[in-house]
Amino acid sequence: MIRKWGSTLVLSSALLLAGCGSQADGNAGDEDTVKVGVLASLTGALESYGKQTQRGFELGLEYATDGTMEVAGKKIEVVFEDTETKPEVAVQKATKLLEEDDVDFLVGSSSSGDTLAVLPLAEEYEKIMLVEPAVADSITGSEFNKYIFRTARNSSQDAVAGAAAIAGEGVKIATFAPDYSFGWDGVAAFKEAAENLGAEIVLEEFADPAATDFTSNLQKVIEADPDYLFIVWAGANSPWNQIADMKLQEKGIKISTGAPDIPALSIMEPLVGMEGFSVYYHTLPDNEINDWLVEEHKARYDGEVPDLFTPGGMTAAIAIVEALEKSEGSVDADELIGIMEGMSFETPKGTMTFRPEDHQALQPMYSITLEEQEGVPYPVPVLVEELSPEDTEPPIMNNPE
């Protein structure tokens, strides 16, 4: 049973010693220690995502262990590694965690490309990997192996939530996404969900994820003359300013997307009134764990609220502790798989359940509008409807036997 502990957080010495990129301190193979390796983009274009995951994971371990950093009589140690949002680096860092640090679990990563590159290592070394926050459907689809459990939502869950906000009979929609696995899977899933609701996809436009000029891409959107432009995007080089400069909304094209993290929301003022969806915003969930997360995050980080992927990091930590409590500290992967398949657990977003067939966590999502709020210097996602785990349950795509 996961417990709530007091309001003052104190980092354990184990967590302090296991900082970003640090080496293990001689406890490899120690039967009294559980070691977790966390892969995250701590530098580069997805740096904010990685740091949100890191903060959330630290807070999650403290919450789930009542601040002891112990479970089933074992100490928990964490090693963070920076993937730099480069798949080849992610593989190097994951190999280091598995071989040199001898970790019992992997967690990560911020990028779907990084994560897909690392998945085979979890199978090779027979270690459980908690995928957070990467969303590509293929992670729990075509590239799935039995050691993978995803606390992050997948592209199809995003798609169902996004389509629920704008799709309908006869609605014309164009899509715009980065030209790699995150974008491909996101658009494919959205297209299926939107067409199931009667919408027509009139254009699928992909752009170089490292580009800074999207003029030609957006011009194609204008020429397609859709009712909506649905955008799948991640990273710092977002298209929002150019969408405003090219006056897409003044041309009758409504914009819709998943509400991003707070730094990206700060440049979305032209999209006030937008209909879309959210994975998380700190005021959307209504439960005690989220209340705790918001309060403690503010206390520790100079009044800052948890951002888009902070609760995901916390959720991955809670899932590991929950599984270890049930296994009485055993880190045997086959035993943990049996425990975690079908396991339900409480998170900042409410109850999640690992679906047995593909180990995807079923979870709530949120239909929102972006609105101005007094005293907040960016458009705020305001709840229209909470979509239940059943509402957003994605198809099973890993062809289980």
TrEMBL record:
Family annotation (Pfam families): Peripla_BP_6
Keyword hit for Cell wall biogenesis/degradation: no
UniProtKB keywords: Signal
Entry superkingdom: Bacteria
InterPro entries according to UniProt: BCAA_transport (IPR051010), Leu-bd (IPR028081), Peripla_BP_I (IPR028082)
Signal peptide coordinates: 1-24
Protein name: ABC transporter permease
Taxonomic source organism: Jeotgalibacillus salarius
